[in-house]
């Protein structure tokens, strides 16, 4: 009697389209911390995560919600607020002596000049060493917030972030 090859169900997170295990394994095999950037309807979340056998460990995190509460700004989920979130994360990481990471954008739709890449640009501008391509970043005028009606005091917030960690 001929036996058939049996295939089991894919893992639950793979079935729910939450995790790409091939991509995750590639990132983890590099043994460097990951800069994970996620977006929700109202916020941008950025974390530096390190793999541990017992489970991933978050080393540093920042979000637009933290910017709103700590620096008293009215930021939405736009390119400027995403840039500032990355900038805040970069300064926190350098304060904890984390100097390099790899970008992990997950299963999100990746578009050049998007909110994800403005967060990455903020982290790079803060001094974090992340492999990247310059043409993926948003245009400088959009990061400055010149396309918005109500301009955000970008330089004031950046100086507050720099002054806090000294």
Could you please describe the fold and organization of this structure?
- There is one protein chain.
- This protein has 166 residues and is α+β, with helices and mostly antiparallel strands.
- It has a single domain, classed as Nucleotidyltransferase, domain 5 (2-Layer Sandwich), CATH 3.30.420.100.
- The protein has seven helices and four strands, in the order H-H-E-E-E-H-H-E-H-H-H.
- Strands 3-2-1-4 form a four-stranded mixed sheet.
- Strand 1 and strand 2 form a beta hairpin.
- The longest helix has 17 residues, at 79-95.
- The mean pLDDT is 88.
- Return residue spans where pLDDT drops below 50 for at least 5 consecutive residues: none
Proportion in β-strands: 5-15%
Overall number of structural domains: 1
What is the CA-CA span between the terminal residues? 74 Å
Can you lay out the helices and strands and say which pair or pack?
Layout lengths: L11 H4 L5 H9 L4 E6 L4 E7 L6 E7 H8 L7 H17 L6 E3 L10 H12 L13 H5 L9 H11 L2
Parallel strand pairs: 1-4
Antiparallel strand pairs: 1-2, 2-3
Helix pairs in contact: 4-5, 4-7
Question: Any descriptors?
Answer:
166 residues; alpha+beta; Nucleotidyltransferase, domain 5; four-stranded mixed β-sheet; 7 helices; 4 strands
What's the gist of this structure?
With 166 residues, this protein is of the alpha+beta class. 40% of the residues lie in helices and 14% in strands. The mean pLDDT is 88.
């Amino acid at each position: 009697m001929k036996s058939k090859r049996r295939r089991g169900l894919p893992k639950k997170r793979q079935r729910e389209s939450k995790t790409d295990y091939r991509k995750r394994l590639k990132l983890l095999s590099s043994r460097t911390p990951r800069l994970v950037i996620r977006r929700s309807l109202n916020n941008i979340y950025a974390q530096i995560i390190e793999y541990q056998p017992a489970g991933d460990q978050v080393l540093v995190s920042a979000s637009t919600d933290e910017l709103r509460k700590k620096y008293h700004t009215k930021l939405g989920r736009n390119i400027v607020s995403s840039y500032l979130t990355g900038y805040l994360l970069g300064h926190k990481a350098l304060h904890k002596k984390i100097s390099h990471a790899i970008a992990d954008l997950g299963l999100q739709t990746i578009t050049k000049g998007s909110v994800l890449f403005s967060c990455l640009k903020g982290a790079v501008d803060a001094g974090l060493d992340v492999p990247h391509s310059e043409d993926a970043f948003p245009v400088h005028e959009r990061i400055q917030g010149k396309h918005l009606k109500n301009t955000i005091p970008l330089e004031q917030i950046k100086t507050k972030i720099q002054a806090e960690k000294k």
